Amino acid sequence: MVRLKRSRDDKIRSNEVQNSCNDSAPISQSRSSNTMSESNSTQAASHLESSQNQPHIQETIEVESTDILEIIDTEGRIKRKRGIQHAKDVWNLPMGERIVIKCNRFGQPLKKGGGILSGWLGLVARMGNWCPIGYKRWKIVPSRYKIDVLNLTRSKFVLPNSDIDKWVLKSLSRKWKNFRFELKAKYMLEDLTEQQLASNVPHGIVPHQWVDLVRYWFSEKCQLYSQVGKTSRSLHTTHHTTDSMSFGRKRDEFEIEHGREPSRLEFFIETHKRKDGTLDKPSQTIVDNVGKKIVEKGGTSESSEATSELQDEVYTDILGKDRKLVAFLTLLSVRKLNNIMTLTSVRKFKEFLMLLSVRKLNNIMTLTSIRKLKEFLTLLSVRKLQT
C-alpha cells in the first residue's frame, strides 16, 4: 500500500514536470539524492511558476514594509530590495537570485526575510507534489519529500547553516497539519458520509491523496485523537496576538528596542497584548498573579537582571502547573495509544475527557479525575490495546 502510494505521488510529480510549461502551479523535478549540489537545486527550481491551481486558502504573513531584503545573485553580489512583500513573490525571483536569511541564536529566522520564508513554507505545505496530505502523520511522510523541500528552499533562500533545516521542517510540519485542519473544518460536514466526502475533491488537491486523507478522518483512531485535541485546546485559556509574526521575530524586536533579552513575563505580555496594549481577562489574571507573587518574594530589585530572574522564577512556578496537564494530553495523542483501543478503554477515556472538560481541573487535578486516569492507564497497560 505504501509502495503504491509512493509510486502514485512520483507519477504526479513526473507529470507535473513534463507539463510545467502549460501549468501555472509551482513544480520541480524530484530530487531525492542527498548529495545533490545547491546549483542543481537552483536549476530545478527555475521551472517553478506562480501558483494558481492550489486550494484557495492563502498564507498571510506580517512583514515590515520598511524592512529591506538582501538578495544575492550567482556571482555573490548582494542587492537590497523593498519590492517583495508577499510569499508568492518568491516564485518570481530571477533565476539564481536568493533571499538572504538571518537567524537568532535559537535558529529562528528574523526580520522581513524570516516572515517571507515562513509564509513561503506555508504555500509549499499546501502543494501535494511537495507535501502529500494523504499520509496519517507528518512523521511518516517519506524523507525524500522533506529533502526535496529543503533543496527547493535553499534554491530560493540563503540559509545560514544546516541547523536551520530543523526549523524549516518543524515549520513545514506545523503548516502541513494546519492545512489539513483547515480542509477538515471546511469540507467535513456532519451529514456527509465517507464516500460522499471522498468524491468531493477540492480544487487543487491530488485526488488519491484526498481519498487517503478522508479515509483517515473517518477512522476510529483519528476521531479519538480529535477528541483529545479538542480537550487539550479547551484547556488553553490564553491566546497569543502575534498573528503570523513568529515569536523569534517578536523577540528580536524587543531586544532591538530595549537592548536586552525579555523575561518570560515580559515576553508573555508582548505576545498576548492587543493592539491597544491591553490583555484579555485570562492573560491579565496571569500577569496579576505573577505580580503578587513577586511582591510576596521581596518585590522588585534595582538590578534589571535580578528582576528578570525573579519574574522567570515566579512565571514558571505559576504557569508550569497549568501546562503539565496540557502536555500530558498532547503526549497521549502523539503516542498514538498503541494502535486500536478496545471499546472499554474508549469508554473510560471518554469519561476522563468529559471530566477534564467540565471541571477544567482548576489548575489542580481532583481525586476523581486522578482515579479515572489511573483506571484508564491501567486498562491500557493490561489490554495492550489489541490490534
Task: Kindly summarize this structure in a few lines.
Residues 15-27, 44-56 have a biased composition (Polar residues). InterPro entries: Probable_transposase_24. The chain has 387 residues and is mainly α.
If you had to describe this structure to a student in words, what would you say it looks like?
By secondary structure, the chain is mainly alpha-helical. It folds into 2 domains: 200 residues, no CATH class; 74 residues, no CATH class. Helix content is 55%, strand content 3%. It is built from 14 helices and 4 strands. Strands 2-1-3-4 form a 4-stranded mixed sheet. The longest helix is centred in the C-terminal third of the chain and has 31 residues. The radius of gyration is 24 Å and the shape is flat. About 18% of the residues have low confidence.
SSE layout and pairing:
Blueprint: H1 2-18, H2 38-45, E1 69-72, E2 78-81, E3 98-100, H3 111-124, H4 143-156, E4 157-158, H5 164-187, H6 194-199, H7 207-217, H8 220-234, H9 247-258, H10 264-272, H11 281-296, H12 304-334, H13 343-359, H14 367-383
Parallel strand pairs: 3-4
Antiparallel strand pairs: 1-2, 1-3
